[in-house]
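Severity: low
Component: inverse-folding endpoint
Summary: output formatting inconsistent between runs
Steps to reproduce: submit the following structure tokens with default settings.
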């Protein structure tokens, strides 16, 4: 067995430690030689924390990436990491893996990739291994630039989720593969949103269930179908999951409801859209414009803006109306509502949003000099 060190980041808005978390920690412990548990924010005392070699408590800042940064750059822990053949970064944002960690580690050891995770996501201009579970091998752990990236690029104190995703999930991945490191996922061919279509993704081999499916865009049928799939596919008890989602999300669901549902999703699964544009085309559009605005202030806007070379030429960011304006500035530039922009025929717009959001605003973009769509 490889000498494996794991950093497990725990966060709960209620501070409660549920049975599924303990099950996950015990399973991870069996498959690692050195386990560090980092608790972001408050948490109750839990017996499963005691099996770690070290437990670190910190304020809930920087999300999981901030927790990993603190440990990785700590001189005591860095010595442990540098002596390891693998470093695992894992958080408690998912249930599972339902077949256990051992099967996954054994399979990925055969594939001999430098960096891997549960699933690799590809959307054209954006690709990454989803960061709720990541593994780095000895080759990467011997690279000083691995540690430099955490020190220079990961903000230990931010509360901005989009920034964390950009630097830790997207740019860190791109940085490592630019250095020639090989990569992959335990499952590589998932073309569906793991939050919206959990059954379809598990049918493709994904052995986990993201907890967020019980939050944003919650669909009871899809959630119940996922739980029924887990129960019968893996002979897995779901009572712990039901208890946690009721306490954390206020969703009451009984085993009888799960049992009576069909293992099918409410609407027909739609594959993730893949951008037809590339970074060269994006750069060319931005470099030619003398009056450029980005439409959007979310994940795609953050990603595209930070990747382009001529950021100084971007005049500002645009949202549809004041309801969509989360703040007056974004990336230190002013955020305008669409109605505030004058002389549209002299303005170029790069629509930096997901495809559904892009489709929703297309009808508002007539009159602008040039409009760049990532998806068409």
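Observed output (run 2 of 3):
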């Amino acid at each position: 067995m490889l000498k494996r060190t794991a950093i497990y980041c725990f966060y709960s808005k209620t501070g409660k430690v549920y049975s599924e978390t303990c099950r996950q920690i015990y399973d991870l412990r069996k498959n690692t030689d050195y386990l560090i548990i980092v608790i972001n924010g408050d948490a109750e005392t839990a017996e499963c924390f005691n099996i770690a070699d070290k437990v670190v408590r910190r304020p809930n800042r920087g999300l999981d990436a901030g927790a990993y940064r603190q440990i990785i750059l700590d001189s005591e822990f860095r010595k442990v990491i540098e002596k390891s053949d693998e470093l695992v970064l894992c958080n408690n944002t998912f249930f599972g893996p339902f077949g256990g960690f051992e099967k996954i580690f054994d399979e990925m050891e055969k594939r001999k990739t430098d960096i891997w995770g549960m699933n690799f996501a590809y959307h054209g201009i954006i690709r990454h291994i989803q960061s709720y579970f990541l593994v780095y091998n000895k080759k990467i752990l011997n690279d000083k630039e691995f540690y430099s990236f955490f020190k220079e690029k990961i903000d230990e104190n931010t509360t901005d989720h989009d920034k964390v995703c950009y630097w830790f999930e997207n740019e860190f991945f791109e940085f490592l593969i630019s250095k020639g490191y090989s990569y992959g996922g335990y499952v590589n061919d998932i073309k569906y949103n793991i939050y919206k279509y959990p059954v379809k993704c598990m049918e493709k081999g994904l052995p986990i269930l993201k907890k967020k499916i019980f939050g944003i865009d919650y669909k009871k049928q899809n959630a119940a179908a996922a739980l029924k799939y887990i129960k019968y596919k893996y002979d897995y008890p779901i009572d712990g999951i039901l208890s946690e989602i009721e306490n954390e999300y206020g969703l009451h669901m009984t085993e009888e409801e799960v049992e009576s549902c069909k293992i099918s999703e409410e609407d027909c699964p739609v594959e993730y859209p893949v951008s037809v544009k590339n970074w060269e085309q994006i750069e060319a559009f931005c470099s030619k414009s003398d009056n450029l605005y980005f439409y959007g202030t979310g994940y795609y806007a953050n990603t595209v803006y930070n990747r382009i070379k001529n950021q100084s030429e971007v005049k500002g960011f645009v949202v549809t109306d004041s309801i969509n304006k989360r703040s007056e500035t974004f990336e230190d530039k002013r955020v305008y509502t669409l109605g505030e922009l004058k002389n549209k025929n002299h303005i170029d717009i790069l629509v930096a949003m997901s495809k559904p959001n892009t489709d929703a605003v297309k009808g508002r973009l007539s009159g602008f000099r040039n409009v760049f769509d990532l998806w068409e």
